[in-house]
Write a structure and sequence with these properties.
- With 169 residues, the protein is an all-alpha fold.
- It is built from four helices and no strands.
- α1 runs antiparallel to α2, α1 packs antiparallel against α4 and α2 packs antiparallel against α3.
- The longest helix is centred in the first third of the chain and has 83 residues.
- The radius of gyration is 33 Å and the shape is rod-shaped.
């Protein structure tokens, strides 16, 4: 074969190989870039979720503290009224405290449903029920017993919320 033909064949082969390698490199780069983009988007979603859970846990801790305080005020008012009237739970909680208790309970109910951890969500429902049961007692001793139990339950749920909160940092 003629050297000019070999030169042409070599040039064409080189051009084809360079083009093919360029196309393959572009495909590999695009595929890698797409994978990286998917991973990045997944990480962003996970961080948004963790941020949402952190904020939710902080709000729940705040609301639980408020409800606990309102329930304690309710209990103390019932004890004061009982000393005066000798009738259990015949007094009325002032409107502002009563409204705040209702609003806080509603907010806790809403925020509890946003908790991903099923066990913690159930614990929140249980403590809310226990807190509200203080107002449905039939005697001062029953109310005192429920309040003493609430101390332990409150400490446990706050600890569990703290654990979940730290997991999301």
């Amino acid at each position: 074969m003629n050297p000019e033909i070999w030169g042409l064949v070599g040039t064409l082969t080189g051009a084809i190989l360079v083009t093919a390698s360029s196309v393959i490199t572009t495909l590999i780069s695009t595929k890698s870039s797409t994978k990286n983009q998917i991973i990045l988007e997944k990480l962003k979603r996970e961080e948004l979720f963790r941020d949402f859970q952190r904020k939710n846990f902080l709000e729940i801790q705040d609301i639980l503290s408020k409800i606990y305080r309102y329930i304690t005020v309710l209990h103390i008012e019932d004890l004061k009224n009982y000393k005066i009237t000798k009738e259990w739970q015949k007094g009325m909680l002032n409107d502002e405290t009563n409204d705040n208790l209702l609003i806080s309970n509603r907010n806790l109910c809403i925020l509890s449903e946003r908790v991903q951890n099923d066990n913690l969500r159930n614990q929140l429902k249980q403590i809310r029920t226990k807190m509200n049961s203080v107002s449905k007692t039939v005697s001062p001793s029953e109310s005192n017993d429920k309040m003493f139990q609430l101390v332990a339950d409150f400490d446990k749920i706050m600890n569990d919320l703290g654990v979940e909160l730290r997991k999301n940092y």
